[in-house]
Amino acid sequence: MQHFSISYTDGADITCCLLNDRPSRNPDQSPRPGVVLVPGGGYHCVVDHEQECIAVQFLAKGYHVFILNYTVNEDGSRPLHSLPLEQLARAMAFIRGHAREWHLDPGRLALAGFSAGGHLAGSLAVHWHREWLKERTALSPERIRPDALILAYPVTTTGPFAHRGSIDHLLGSDATEEELHLYSLEEQVTTHVPPVFLWHTQEDEFVPVMGSLLFAQACIRENVPLELHIYPENRHGLSLAIKETAWEDPASVDPHIAGWFSLCTEWLELIWK
User: Fold this and answer.
1) pTM (2 d.p.)
2) Conformational region of residue 166, where left means phi above 0, alpha means psi within -120 to 50, and beta covers everything else
3) Rg of the chain over CA atoms, in angstroms?
4) Is there a contact between 32 and 63 (Cβ–Cβ < 8 Å)?
């Protein structure tokens, strides 16, 4: 495996994890699918338990993996606005630009976002085709589009069920109604959103599950293919729900919830077959 980091734009970098192909591993030498991981952290940090351990699991399933380290608002003093979204868009274009070199299928590039990283991934999924994003990045929509969207306990809404800390770090506590509408993902879903795999826990103490339900409802309304899993128990931020990604709370190791990863990779195989 090749493992390296690249700074591709101001304030952001990508950790690339590329499988080395051999005939025994990839008999027909077809380009591999890829997954871009977008860790959470409330837009004030980028947490580590939603990075390498998840990357290893996707690598074992035959995916190239790319981990985005994006700009955050550490002390809450400088709202980010569209900067992380522009960085993610440039990351997608940068990765696709190296598709031939990295033996990557540019038509099978998924986004997987966790918590506030889910909001960032979801923002690209709902806005990749918008003219305003093309103007800000100088990138064509075809280069930045996600081909699938994986959301784990995501921040989705800026409304009553918002995770207020994430939204304030992104937009500021004095965000305009226009900004709040633009970044409330359930308000922006169209048929341009790629197929979605979404999971959340009903007991999530930080990011209300209702936000995910609002986003899911919007996907259903627009006929966006959706697989939704609501687990009745457990906390926020479980990642893989195994001991390698656990918090100090023993309950964050949950074999039932850990099954989300197998369900997700089965889903990817189905939508891309």
Assistant:
1) 0.97
2) alpha
3) 17
4) yes
Residues β-bridged to residue 18: 2
Neighbour count for residue 124 (Cβ, 10 Å): 25
Report pLDDT digits (tens) over 34-49.
999 999 999 999 999 9
Structural tokens at position 99: 């598709």
Strand 196-201 to 148-152 pairing: parallel
Sort 7 into a burial class: Cβ within 10 Å, 0-12 / 13-18 / 19+.
Answer: exposed
State the DSSP string of 31-69.
PEEEEEEE--STTT---STTSHHHHHHHHHTT-EEEEEE
Q: How confident is the model at residue 23 (pLDDT cuts 50, 70, 90)?
A: low
Instruction: Give the ranges where the chain is alpha helix by DSSP (H).
Output: 52-60, 83-97, 99-102, 116-127, 131-137, 141-144, 164-171, 177-182, 209-221, 255-258, 260-272
| 270 C-beta neighbours (distance < 10 Å), count | 11
Non-local CB neighbours of 255 within 8 Å, separated by 6+ positions: 241
Q: Which residue has the higher pLDDT, 34 or 26?
A: 34
Grouping H, G, I as helix, E, B as strand and the rest as coil, residue 229 is strand
Round the average pLDDT of the chain to a whole number and report it.
95
> Sign of the CA dihedral 251, 256, 261, 267?
negative
Which of 54, 63, 112, 42 has the alpha carbon at shortest distance from 240? 54
Torsion on CA atoms 70, 71, 73, 75, rounded to nearest 10: 100
Say how far apart CA 181 and CA 177 lie, in whole Å.
6
Strand partners for 5: 15
Which residues have a Cβ under 8 Å from the Cβ of 174 and sit 6 or more positions away? none
- What is the spatial distance between Cα 184 and Cα 267, in angstroms, rounded to a whole number? 26
